[in-house]
Amino acid sequence: MQVHLNPPLDPGSPPELAAAIVAAAADISDATLDYSPESIDVVEDIVDGFRAEGVSDEEMGESLVGFGCYLGEIVIRHIGGTWRPAPATHPTTAPFVVVLPDARECHPIDWVFSRLKSGAAVDIRVLYATAAADGEDRGVTEEAPDEAQG
Question: The whole model's pTM is what?
Fold first, then answer.
């Protein structure tokens, strides 16, 4: 499944890119993506299919970005947050991340690229649950500079 990024990749485009991947997934895979947390399983299955076919992230980059935007929209709709430019201190696949209401940032586009690379070892549902949880940070990073503690 190849999606051409239109509009271009900028912090205002993720909702449109998410909508494009919803339509593409329905047309190509007959998959239903309804912006529910349960639909994360569908995204994982599609990405796992790409992995099984042996495709690279370069070959599927646009689609992976679209799925990452879709996951980010799930985060925003169910947890809260906004798309923001990625800070230069955190390398990321895309130039933007979701900043959660408590100022943590999560990287849903990176989640998808990591799932393609590492398979089930990267559990997107767990990353989503971590973003939703207050407390220990296992799938998101804090925006605050005081990350180094004992």
Answer: 0.83
- Token pair for residue 116? 């393609």
Tokens of 42: 């569908």
Using CA atoms, how far apart are residues 82 and 44, in angstroms rounded to an integer?
23
* Range 32-47 average pLDDT: 97
Please state, rounded to an integer, the average pLDDT across all residues of the chain. 83
* CA neighbor of 74 nearest in space, from 37, 101, 20: 37
Is the Cβ–Cβ distance between 106 and 114 less than 8 Å?
no
Greatest Cα pair distance, the chain, in angstroms, is 50
* Alpha-helix residue ranges (DSSP H) falling in the chain: 14-24, 40-52, 61-78, 108-118, 124-132
Q: What is the pLDDT of residues 77-118, one digit of tens each?
A: 999 999 998 877 766 667 789 999 999 999 999 999 999 999
Instruction: Give, in order, the Cα–Cα distances in Å from 119 to each of 46, 70, 76, 83, 112.
Output: 11, 19, 25, 26, 10
